[in-house]
Design a protein that fits this description.
The protein is built from 16 helices and two strands. It has a two-stranded antiparallel sheet. The C terminus is likely disordered.
Length: 411
């Protein structure tokens, strides 16, 4: 904690990025609650409501290579600010259309798609800037507390969003989301401070996108981290789908037990995030990553063997804890391995690969649960994670890359 306080107080760039991330994520949570509730009331269809999330993921997958190249090509505070302003204007149209009584679900789909394009660019730029202004030995602390802040603000945002929507209606919640993007832009003005901006390159962005793909293929550990993240996402993404099924199968009507299950995974993620600096010091990257996946495996074994509600809660807590440890370990390793000229493209493609697992996971999990029951999906997750834990010890986590001085360094 002392290391984080020192980093936060002395590094103006990190402080602004940290605050901007909290404000932006709070707005996102308010919007998720409001849009989900409003879309269901508008369409009376769970399928059309669920498509909102699917459509918002598509740009992250399709435009990630271009967004990453754009970030590497032209990264400065204006890119962060303009993408925030763009999201602000787009989101603001929804409550205006609701007020004018001209809103349709197609408008929400289109706006969600466009907002996601800006989000892809913003996230790539945000993650790329951090390692440019923070020493390598401080990256673990920087990303762990950024993740813990995100986890805590998401819990607060979901609770606050439910209250605001129930008391004031979805329009107010969406307006607050739009305002959060505007505040984010204000925070990020001149975020680079006195540090020299990255030199602009007169290169073709599409060509740079392909160069980014070729660069990743050359570094086997990046490929391993990307693929492992994809596997992990397939198993953990449907957690929100598990809980309603568990409640229904066990005939649970208790609000306390329901809230306990929904809060367990986010709580575990928060604990994992704030405890990461300790594990970073005591366990090397490879072993820490493998142990985190092993903990996920233990969580799914508990879910598969037992049918006791409080054990389900403990299992979700363990899985949430392991998610944070594995995510931060992979994120820090990726920043260290990647040359600065390729950071934007690598971060964007990492996000895209992870998100590809989202629709796949929901499709497979939903089908298996409907036809074979929840336990069968847990068994499938156990097999997938077991294979990952068996293979990872044989992977090489040491890599030689060239520095600007054409010298070789081991990582």
């Amino acid at each position: 904690m002392n290391k984080f306080i020192e980093l936060y107080s002395k590094n103006l760039t990190y402080r602004k990025l940290y605050l901007a991330n909290l404000v932006s994520r709070l707005g996102d949570m308010l919007e998720i609650v409001a849009i989900t509730i409003f879309m269901y009331k508008l369409t009376n269809s769970a399928l059309l409501t669920g498509l909102t999330m699917v459509i918002s993921v598509i740009p992250n997958i399709l435009f990630a290579p271009i967004a990453g190249a754009l970030v590497d090509h032209y990264i400065n505070y204006r890119l962060l600010c303009w993408t925030s302003i763009g999201r602000c204007i787009l989101v603001l149209w929804v409550p205006i259309a609701i007020y004018l009584d001209i809103i349709t679900f197609w408008q929400i789909y289109i706006i969600g798609f466009c907002v996601s394009i800006f989000e892809t660019i913003f996230t790539s730029a945000h993650n790329t800037i951090i390692p440019l202004f923070i020493a390598e030995e401080d990256l673990g602390t920087a990303f762990s507390f950024l993740k813990s802040g995100t986890d805590s603000i998401q819990i607060i945002g979901l609770m606050l969003g439910g209250i605001i929507v129930s008391v004031l209606g979805p329009s107010i919640s969406i307006i607050l989301d739009s305002l959060s993007f505007f505040i984010t832009a204000l925070i990020l003005i001149n975020v680079f401070g006195k540090v020299k901006e990255i030199e602009k390159r007169d290169r073709n962005i599409f060509k740079e996108s392909m160069e980014g793909l070729f660069y990743i293929k050359q570094i086997s550990l990046l490929m391993i981290l990307f693929f492992t993240g994809f596997i992990i996402n397939i198993t953990i993404v449907p957690i929100n789908l598990y809980i309603p099924v568990i409640l229904n199968e066990n005939n649970v009507v208790s609000g306390f037990l329901s809230g306990l299950l929904f809060a367990s995974a986010p709580t575990g993620m928060f604990i994992g995030s704030i405890s990461f600096p300790y594990f970073e010091k005591s366990i090397n990257d490879k072993n820490r990553f493998i142990l985190s996946i092993l903990f996920m495996l233990i969580g799914f074994v508990i879910l598969y063997i037992y049918s006791f509600m409080y054990l389900y809660s403990i299992a979700f807590l363990i899985i949430g804890f392991a998610i944070s440890i594995s995510f931060i370990t992979a994120m820090v390793k990726i920043q260290i391995l990647t040359d600065r000229d390729f950071l934007g493209r690598v971060n964007a493609l990492n996000t895209a690969v992870s998100l590809i697992g989202v629709p796949i996971a929901y499709l497979i999990a939903g089908t298996m649960i409907d036809f074979n029951g929840l336990k069968m999906w847990f068994l499938g997750s156990i097999i997938l994670l077991s294979l990952t834990v068996i293979v990872l010890p044989f992977t090489n986590w040491r890599i030689i890359k060239e520095t600007n001085n054409d010298e070789n360094c081991n990582y």
